[in-house]
């Protein structure tokens, strides 16, 4: 694979408004999404999240070269984006999505994802983006060697990813699909071509540009077949039995002290001050405060944090970009650990709405 060629970009809404984009997954779909974004838009910043390193077999259907083997996908993709457009602030994060502080996602205008794990897709689209009130776009390919792809656009307050889940989806939540035709990891091999991944990526960026001009009134999906040339759009409907209430968390709470000097005692005080006389629970990243890492997040009662009260937030593994979800029986709020990352609430609130064809 040759170095990407610099191409003139058309003027788009993202060029005028300077969009902030988070891309989760840098494989068959995500690597092509990054190239589409930088070549077609004038985004202000791009955060790339992926935990994997490049293998030689990835070069068959992903935007990498053989000499990239052994390097983290996020870092290689970030360098390629910077080579094409040095004005884009690129932030590569080599980590599992569940280990990324929520504040990293909170500043995005839109989140795009090409994930090969159903559990990761559930975490991103149904938990994180939805609570933040940030629109998200999911891309998927036929991993059996077919020619079909799907793009789903999730609008906060409307149908979420899990609205379409059935029993089979929940049984498969721990199922992950390797990204290569001859993969011997867990799950079924993915034989999607680079052409199909790039086709999904183009449609994802098309929808990101349209979405950031005006948020659609409903979530929707685009299904297409490269072989037949057929494509159709369908509305995604909220399911009455979905486990989500489909509300974003709009309320924000700040610590009383700067992150660098704050202790867990200040975190407890802020949580209790917000909750008043109500019992309050705190939801945080996995692995903190003695919680197991086998889940995507962990919930603790405030009393469980007391043994850590004298330690600084950094000492217990918290990051200044972490957001803690505070929860009482009737209220929710995000506790932000760094006031420099304050955001005004759900990102779709001040944008126009539109209908889709």
Helix-strand blueprint:
Blueprint: H1 13-17, E1 20-24, H2 30-40, E2 45-49, H3 73-84, E3 89-93, H4 102-106, E4 110-113, H5 118-132, E5 136-141, E6 148-154, H6 167-171, H7 194-213, E7 215-216, E8 220-225, E9 231-235, E10 252-254, H8 264-275, E11 281-285, E12 297-301, E13 323-327, E14 332-336, E15 353-354
Helix pairs in contact: 2-3, 2-7
What would you note in describing this structure?
The chain has 357 residues and is an alpha/beta fold. It has eight helices and 15 strands. An eight-stranded mixed beta sheet has the order 3-2-1-4-5-6-8-9, sandwiched between helices. Strands 10-14-13-11-12 form a five-stranded mixed beta sheet, with helices on one face. Strands 7-15 form a two-stranded parallel ribbon. Strand 2, helix 3 and strand 3 form a beta-alpha-beta unit.
- Structural class, judged by helices and strands? alpha/beta
Mean pLDDT: 85
Summarize the main sheet: 8 strands, mixed
- What is the approximate shape? globular
Point out poorly predicted stretches. 1-17, 176-189, 342-354
Gyration radius over CA: 20 Å
Count of individual helical segments: 8
Distance between the termini: 38 Å
Number of strands: 15
Q: State the helicity in percent bands.
A: 10-25%
Classify the beta-strand content into a percent band: 15-25%
